[in-house]
Design a protein that fits this description.
mainly alpha, about 80% helix, globular
Length: about 190
């Protein structure tokens, strides 16, 4: 029994030291989150089952929503509630604060792009999408938003390109597959 304590105590101390604030394990957390996201994207690209791909995409969205700040999370929640109630100006106010507090949080920019899109303010939406994609080039939500704006404004070739970029990241996204087929037919009919 005494030998068991000699083995367990050092292991427990090593674990507590590794998990203590400022430790190497804590410093490695962002790297682990980034590598988790990289693994999820690799899985998403390989997955050929639509439902399984949707589950992976949901996990990616969950990672993207992690701001690391209770204040930012609360403002995101409030902006969502305001948007659901069609109070877009209020939603934008909250999202402006999110971006001010965390300018490197891609999902803050993406959410604001979505609100601008809902308000038919495509120029501002595209500016926020561009910022989102600078921070997270694999953001398939931002890419599909970009494609929708391009299609809506008559720039079909560019919309097709944005949907194809989406499918390079998320091959099983049915909406993007459908849009690629539709736009390809339309553009072929126009003789490009």
């Amino acid at each position: 029994m005494r030998n068991l304590f000699h083995v367990l105590i050092p292991a427990l101390v090593a674990t507590l030291v590794a998990l203590s604030p400022g430790s190497a394990a804590e410093d490695a957390a962002p790297i682990d989150e980034a590598s988790r996201l990289d693994r999820l994207f690799a899985d998403l690209k390989r997955e050929r089952n639509e439902k399984a791909a949707e589950r992976i995409a949901s996990q990616i969205w969950a990672e993207w929503r992690k701001s690391g700040s209770a204040s930012v999370d609360l403002m995101l929640q409030w902006s969502n509630e305001a948007a659901e109630n069609k109070k877009f100006d209020v939603a934008l106010d909250f999202l402006d604060q999110v971006i001010t507090l965390q300018p490197d949080f891609a999902e803050g920019w993406n959410r604001r792009a979505t609100i601008h899109f809902m308000m038919d303010n495509y120029a501002k939406s595209m500016a926020d999408i561009e910022h989102t994609l600078r921070l997270e080039p694999r953001h398939f939500g931002a890419l599909t938003g970009l494609a929708a704006i391009l299609k809506e404004t008559g720039r079909k070739e560019l919309a097709l390109d944005a949907y194809e970029r989406t499918l390079a990241i998320y091959p099983m996204m049915r909406d993007a597959q459908s849009e690629v087929a539709t736009l390809s037919e339309e553009l072929a009919g126009e003789g490009i």
